Amino acid sequence: MNIRSSIDKLRESLLTNNKATKPVSETASATAGDSTTPASESNSRFSPDAVPPAWHQFEHFPEYKEYATMIWYCDSQKYPKNLFQPHLGSSDATVNIHGKEFINFSTYNYLALGQDDRVKKAAIDAVETYGVGTGSGRSITGEISLHSEFEREICEVLGAEDAVLSVGGYSTNAFTIGYLCRNQDLILYDELIHNSALTGCKMTGARRFSFPHNDYDALSKLLETHRNKFERVFILVEGVYSMDGDIPDIPKIIEIKNKYKALLMLDEAHSMGVIGPNGLGAVDYFGLDGRDVDIHYGSLSKAFGTCGGYVAGPKPLIAILKQYAPGVLLYGASPTPANSAAALEALRIMRREPERARRLQENAAYFIAKAKSNGLDTFNSHDSGVVPIMMRDSEVALWLSMRLWDAGICSYPMMYPIVPRDKTRLRFFINTNHTHEQMDSAISTIVAELKRAPKSKGLF
Ligand SMILES: Cc1ncc(COP(=O)(O)O)c(C=O)c1O
User: Fold this and answer.
1) Is there a single domain that holds both residue 398 and residue 274?
2) DSSP letter at 140?
3) Atom of ligand 1 minimally distant from the CA of 173
4) Does the CB atom of residue 94 touch ligand 1 within 6 A?
5) Least CB-packed of 236, 250, 312, 324 within 10 Å?
6) What is the total count of domains within the chain?
7) Does the Cβ of 269 fall within 6 Å of ligand 1?
8) Mean pLDDT per 10-residue run, the chain (460 residues)?
9) 153 and 277 co-located in one domain
10) Is the domain of 103 the same as that of 139?
11) Ligand 1, closest atom to CA 240?
């Protein structure tokens, strides 16, 4: 069955019942299709009837039904299709989609370095020199000097001893955690950490506890109770939280981790290049000694404008990651010449031109002040490039994002399962190139549209 016909079928049943089904994933654990236990271990003879559709037909998977409910709802509201739409040219403060110019709040190309002429030239030169790939993993013959140049310069910025550049942002985070944490270890993570870290946690046999967002007393209590039952203890936090746009108290967390002899891993995907007087991340923002953070992690797809990830920290950490960690370097390809050169040039520009980050910070402060003075809720966002406007209802958030789309403004709703249902929001990424007029236009459109928003039927 193709997607269209299965959605039509679902739509029919929804219309017949006159309401959308409750998204199935919420109740999935009660259904046979989601079980991980074999149907019957005592009966060893195969019986086709004992295999329900939810176990072997994708359209009966609960997660597919959730997806189809959403598509049905968007279709029934005649919402324009705004996902997976190719854009023309570059994407920063504006973006051109199918020939229509949008004010863009949906890119994390924060510093507009993704299309900077110097960054592009560095990438083109690297392709001319090395070609489009390196031909093997780094430890064999896939190493090029751009890798170590980036690593040396990111260490200078972070005050770290050594670093490793790797091919993907998500994978570097997941595989670093996945490699370092073992059965006899403990991971304590802020409840809002990114999915890449959660995936890394799941790869390990370590015991894991989340603590309430930025609740340092809860973190201390967990350490007090559990520290001595485990060997290595890791604390996972972010420099800027990617949904809320707030910054945790890193000096406080360092104090706690030192007391309990734990290891701190800091995800700087949304803070490097953005926060701090020079835009150089959490170390710059708090005036930290970079050696106080045990594991610095960053993504290159945000302020660096390209693709990839890095880890920095003490020499022994980087030595074992480079030598032994599957997916960081081992068993995987090396970062491409173009990506490596782009990341290096972007880093050099970040260091030479702190005014880019400062402009972004001023823009974010302007946007938040403007939103608040118009009665909008920007939740906990401060000093970063991520600003949520809270809706707390998925239907209203979807409706508003479509009205913004019609008005030539790009901002996407963040809904369940990305955030809890009652914390649905529209997320705005602020860019160094946004103008006050563009931000004014977004806020006034939101305010005007919200006045005529239909009442939510609580469908999802
Ligand atoms: C906090 C955080 N960490 C890690 C990642 C993964 O980085 P990438 O998108 O470069 O794979 C993201 C991506 O959005 C993120 O927001």
Assistant:
1) no
2) I
3) 4
4) no
5) 324
6) 2
7) yes
8) 54 46 35 47 81 95 90 89 90 95 97 98 98 94 97 98 98 98 98 97 96 98 98 98 98 98 98 98 98 98 98 98 96 96 98 98 98 98 98 91 96 91 95 98 97 83
9) yes
10) no
11) 1
